[in-house]
Specification:
With 76 residues, the chain is an alpha/beta fold. It is built from four helices and four strands, in the order ββααβαβα.
Amino acid sequence: DGIRVNCVSPGATMTSTFARKGIGTEYLMKMVENHAIKRPVEAWEQAAAILWLCSDDAQMVTGLNVPVDGGWAEFS
């Protein structure tokens, strides 16, 4: 039927809620200590992966999990 199924797995993400609350930012920074890339993921970075998966450039990609997590899955 031409249906493709893929998944984006986000890591610790800098959101407006974290940015507004000092304690949230502190917690988020503690989380990224376990990331290979020592910073939070930005929402636009997750969106870029999703847009790519939805584009014609990824028309032959299916059954894929794309971890957009700064290397957390590989590093932990």
